[in-house]
Amino acid sequence: MRVGAHLRQDGDPLATAAELGIDLFQMFVTDPQKWAKPQPHPQAEAIRQAPVDVVVHSSYQINVASLNNRLRMPSRKAVQEQAAAAGELGAIGLVVHGGHLREGEDAAEGFANWRKLFERQQDKGGFAVPILIENTAGGDHAMTRTLESIERLWDAVGDFEQAGFCLDTCHAWAGGEDLVGLVERIRAITGRIDLVHLNNSRDEFDSGRDRHANLESGHIDPAVLAEVMRQAQAPGILETPAEGIAEDLAFLRSQ
Length: 255
What we know:
Elements: E1 3-6, H1 13-20, E2 24-27, H2 44-49, E3 53-57, H3 69-88, E4 94-97, H4 107-122, E5 131-134, H5 147-157, E6 163-168, H6 169-174, H7 182-190, E7 195-197, E8 200-201, E9 212-213, H8 222-232, E10 236-238, H9 245-253
Parallel strand pairs: 1-2, 1-10, 2-3, 3-4, 4-5, 5-6, 6-7, 7-10
Antiparallel strand pairs: 8-9
């Protein structure tokens, strides 16, 4: 298993990665709660040259699927800007949540908006890194909560080479998807899993709540999480509480 962790934005990611003994980490390139354009990272050159892979998580307010121009347009711009910043770090991809619509809106338009994101950027030469679309935990009008919605999204974007998939285990559990056999079911739809967000859940199955727990302390059987990693054959990122990440890594290394 090749597993790393999401690291704090205000720290030294390379030093923390060395301390944890990981060769892969995830980070933000801007405040995840704001629309601010990413600024050059002070360690960009060192991160590019280090024998450590990095993946960037996009900011949370991005909603590419939205039918509201005031949200969709800045979302498209933010994806392009954050992908460019990820490229400056030599990142293997930019993780973007699937997004959601409002009650009464046509889901087909939301999936079409995802396609337009790739179409418009393809006309400009493509993104600086692959866009790894992540499944989400809750919401009746979410684009990527269920396998059915993921299949509809992949029908819209699956022919773009830069469209990848990030499987979050907590989100899948909270969204009502059994983790046993999930890797195979996802691959049957997308043909790929590029990254795993390996998280346990503080809440029960199908809760719709996105609250992560350390691997041996949540409602998901830790052995099932380890099996997801083995089957996915993709890099994994722990987004678990920081105080337990060392123990999470030790658990996975013992499997």
